Amino acid sequence: MKETTNEKLLLLRETGIMDEQVFDYIKKIDQCLCREVEDMDNEMLLIHLVMAMNRIAKGEEIEALPAEILDGLRSRIEFAEAKTYFSYLKLALPAELPSYEEGYIMLHLVNILKNAAREH
User: Fold this and answer.
1) Position 118 confidence tier, pLDDT thresholds 50, 70, 90
2) What is the tens place of the pLDDT at every residue in 39-69?
3) CB 37 within 8 A of CB 113
4) How many domains, in total, are found in the chain?
5) What is the pTM of this model?
6) Closest alpha carbon to 30 in 16, 51, 13, 47
């Protein structure tokens, strides 16, 4: 994890936006993804997961990712691999992820994988 990402996550924990259980989950996800995808910038994904867990705890909802964007993601070569990572993310989540959050998580994963492929 990049130092700046770690600092942001520590601030989110210190301000009560995430608890220790979510913090441990985020570290676990970061370690898993960094092991699989070298030189990856996953900050946006990690922050989104924190905020999603915060919204779930508060009972807040967001609009789902527009269907046309999700359709575009499905056509990406990285989509199948992103689904594999997404399955792992969901299994390890400390709370059930609402369907309206799923498209955003897939967007982050596809972008991470696309950027990692571009770098190699």
Assistant:
1) confident
2) 567 889 999 999 999 999 999 999 999 999 9
3) yes
4) 1
5) 0.87
6) 47
